[in-house]
Amino acid sequence: MEHFKTLSSYINYLGLPPAEHPMLSVFTTVADGYLPCPRESSPPITNDCYTISLKKIIKGDLTYGRTKYDFTNGALIFIAPRQVLQWDSSVIYDQKGFSLTFHEDFIKGTELVAQIKKYNFFSYNVNEALHLSPKEEKQIESIVTNIDTEYHNNQDEFSKDIIISQLSTLLKYANRFYERQFLNRKEFSTDLLSLFNQQLDTYFETGQLQENGIPSIEQIAGKLSVSQRYLSDTLKKETGKTTTEHLQLYLIDEAKNTLLNPQKSISEVAYELGFEYPPYFSRLFKKKEGISPSQYRQKYKMN
């Protein structure tokens, strides 16, 4: 897999005009008249850059998880360094919007380094983009226009600070808009929880638990065609619990049934449920239920 360490090498690979800054590239409809279109397709690649882009689709289908959505409004996409990228020519974009790419070293030594790590949406899949309303789109575009203006000005000692400040503002708005999107997609969130539990049912029923141990959240997310971060954030907004908590609750529910079999020791129950260390199982059970596995067994033992 090809990896691009510098912004210039990545921009050159895409077939875009050279950047005016060694660590920052900005293309907008306002400044350039159109949004330069990169190469039609690419095998898997990685780079050391962050990319924020606003795109509209005029032909082709993209899915949001496993659900198709209307992309006629802008889709704001966030890509983090070393995230694997791959695309083909089946989707055609409108030549409007913007593309903002900056090398990770561009923000080194600034407050944005710590801030950007808090934004989970940089770990979402590309098909989990932020869908903007027309009003939200205008707000984001106004910020990018400010960045673009500074980008094309003669560089001075204030330029980087101003651009970093605008980037910080853009990400804060994006975080707000994602919160709105989560709230507006409760039906999808509920479906996702149902699919999450279905995946666990299948995993248990087919004997994979005994063979491979407790599944990772990444495994489950992969089966659902969503990223691990997006799955956790969606369930957290809808249910107040993370994916790890939902997995633990599922395991505890299974444990309750198994504990009622007096022929099995607490350790055997723990191992059967995929726990490598029985004491950890006992602590988790007590944390969730308020009583230990042995106390639960005593309380609900079959006469």
TrEMBL record:
Segments forming domain HTH araC/xylS-type: 198-299
Keywords: DNA-binding, Transcription, Transcription regulation
Matching InterPro entries: Homeodomain-like_sf (IPR009057), HTH_AraC (IPR018060), Tscrpt_reg_AraC-type_HTH (IPR020449)
Pfam family, one: HTH_18
Gene3D superfamilies: Homeodomain-like
A GO MF label: sequence-specific DNA binding
PANTHER family assigned to the protein according to its UniProt record, in alphabetical order: ARAC-FAMILY TRANSCRIPTIONAL REGULATOR, TRANSCRIPTIONAL REGULATORY PROTEIN
Name by which UniProt lists this protein: Transcriptional regulator
UniProt organism field: Dokdonia donghaensis DSW-1
Lineage: Bacteria, Pseudomonadati, Bacteroidota, Flavobacteriia, Flavobacteriales
